């Protein structure tokens, strides 16, 4: 093969690599999962920080240094992308909660689940904002009932973890103040307080130092309000 032919072949190969959907500069065909993950992270950040108007194929493509086609290759369109962002957020939350196995002390389990919930939010602030409504999705979900309700549907599994732990604590007599209340209702009370703290922390109103002076005391206060003995709310270990 002549030098001219070799040069032409190399040039054609380079152009093909640049045009291949789902690949970023300096990566091979196996980079598709990495590009998808980067698109999800970028979409969550844009939604959380700038709102739905910032979520465009051009902006996302620039984030991953690829053509705009990469967005449609991986997600088909913006509604599917937003749905995937929500799914990713709940998958990460579920994984974090799964690291808290049930023990013989359901009250302590509740405390550890609360700690894990907060840790997930701090590790994934943009995803958390999209998951629970802090990021207004605007026109991206006006015509898509699945997205409007999806955050609640996808969250049912993770909320179920809290309900199960609450139910065990109630059955063990560790939350006598709730009487015969529905564990789901009690869990919703706990979640509401936990979510409020997390949102304030993500907004910069609390610092990591406030964990000892505000967050953990909050968990104890909630437990006492439900009739629990405070020692069982040890979130460590």
TrEMBL record:
Gene3D superfamilies: Tetracycline Repressor, domain 2. Keywords: DNA-binding, Transcription, Transcription regulation. This is WHG domain-containing protein. It comes from Actinomadura harenae. Residues 33-93 form the HTH tetR-type domain. GO terms for molecular function: DNA-binding transcription factor activity; transcription cis-regulatory region binding. Residues 1-30 are annotated as: Disordered. The keyword Transcription applies. InterPro entries: Homeodomain-like_sf, HTH-type_TetR-like_transc_reg, HTH_TetR, MT1864/Rv1816-like_C, Tet_transcr_reg_TetR-rel_C_sf. The keyword DNA-binding applies. Residues 56-75 bind DNA. SUPFAM superfamilies: Homeodomain-like (SSF46689), Tetracyclin repressor-like, C-terminal domain (SSF48498).
């Amino acid at each position: 093969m002549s030098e001219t032919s070799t040069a032409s072949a190399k040039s054609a190969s380079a152009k093909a690599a640049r045009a291949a959907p789902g690949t970023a500069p300096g990566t091979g065909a196996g980079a598709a999962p990495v590009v998808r993950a980067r698109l999800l992270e970028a979409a969550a950040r844009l939604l959380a920080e700038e709102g739905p108007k910032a979520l465009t194929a051009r902006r996302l493509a620039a984030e991953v240094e690829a053509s705009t086609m990469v967005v449609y290759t991986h997600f088909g369109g913006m509604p599917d992308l937003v749905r995937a962002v929500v799914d990713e957020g709940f998958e990460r939350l579920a994984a974090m909660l799964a690291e808290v196995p049930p023990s013989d002390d359901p009250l302590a389990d509740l405390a550890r689940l609360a700690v894990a919930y907060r840790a997930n939010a701090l590790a994934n602030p943009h995803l958390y904002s999209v998951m629970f409504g802090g990021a207004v999705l605007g026109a991206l979900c006006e015509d898509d009932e699945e997205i409007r309700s999806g955050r609640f549907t996808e969250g049912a599994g993770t909320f179920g973890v809290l309900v199960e732990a609450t139910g065990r604590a109630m059955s063990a007599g560790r939350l006598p103040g709730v009487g015969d209340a529905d564990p789901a209702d009690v869990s919703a009370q706990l979640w509401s307080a936990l979510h409020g703290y997390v949102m304030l922390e993500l907004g910069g109103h609390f610092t990591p130092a406030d964990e000892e002076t505000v967050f953990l005391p909050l968990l104890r206060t909630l437990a006492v309000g439900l009739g629990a003995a405070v020692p069982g709310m040890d979130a460590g270990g």
